[in-house]
Amino acid sequence: MKETSPIYLDYNATTPIAKEVADEMAPYLYGYFGNPSSSHSYGVKARMTVEKARHQIADALRSQPSEIVFTSGGTESNNFAIRGYALANRDKGNHIITSQIEHPAVLEVCRYLENQGFLVTYLPVDQYGLVNPQSLEEAFTPNTILVSIMHANNEVGTIQPIQELAEIAHKHGASLHTDAAQTLGKIPVDVQELGVDMLSIAGHKLYAPKGIGALFIRNGTVLEKLMYGADHELNRRPGTENVLEIVGLGKACEIAKRDLEKNMDHFKDLRDHLHKGLQESLPEGSLLLNGHPELRLPNTLSLGFYKKEANTLIAQISDRVAVSAGAACHSEKINISNVLQAMRVPLDYAMGTLRFSVGRGTTIEKIDRSVEIIAASIRAQ
To answer: Domain 7-15+260-380 belongs to what architecture?
Structure first.
């Protein structure tokens, strides 16, 4: 990337493919092209490669390899988990519980299921974006079959008490799915400790390619297929496996586990340095932290800038710093994200919310330069 490229602080949106990942993929782009279902040597090589990646992912999540199904990404994984479980278990009940701050890949599936006769409860969150376990307890009915709560929020980074929520769900005879697209490689993701029945991951959030993901499905959990065809993926997802990108996802998960502690420390140091730098560069009361101060992804910083407009700020700095907005301000109205609305962030701060997310390629020098650029832009508004 050229020196003149903007400083990238939007790693929650997507990540570049890691060099180790690209190197692992390269032979499958140019040489190893076999179909994993073929019985000759080309196919056997491809099949062994797919199974190696399945083991790498299972090792990162502490699951069984047979519990990993490859998908096209986080959206498909969430659809497969929620829709697949609901339709396969409809005879047991028609009530689903989720939260108000989920990703659209969860919320839109739930809205679809509402049109199919399912009832969905959308749990509120507190000012930090946390689901109260008691509110989950109180939401259960005799017809509740599934709970879907994200592991950590993509906008503000708040980490949910998934282990406790899973225990509550199981006490009521329901299964729990979590969207972990934002957490693998940033915090520990252990399906045994979390106690979840299904867990979604997305490759492009952890330095693997776009268009590849996986779904952990605990043994014994029954889902209806989204598509029909041949009996690939233990007859759970038809279609010839995307060997090239499966290789990339497997390697990315291996690296995520290997370097977790180092990356957690690196991310947190840079995130906090950015926060402190902006606090010291702007008058008191100029910014508000969105999300939990402690129970938060180590790389994520959501800040609301008092009486500023997020889209105007981004327009002013986008050629030098790449970040995301939590609100879109137009001439007639201000569109605040559903997450900030659910957290009841004051409008004067919500309208000026920017999400900063650091990554492996972020340096202290880039953070210091970003602070200068952002602070100058805010003072100029």
So the answer is: Alpha-Beta Complex (3.90)
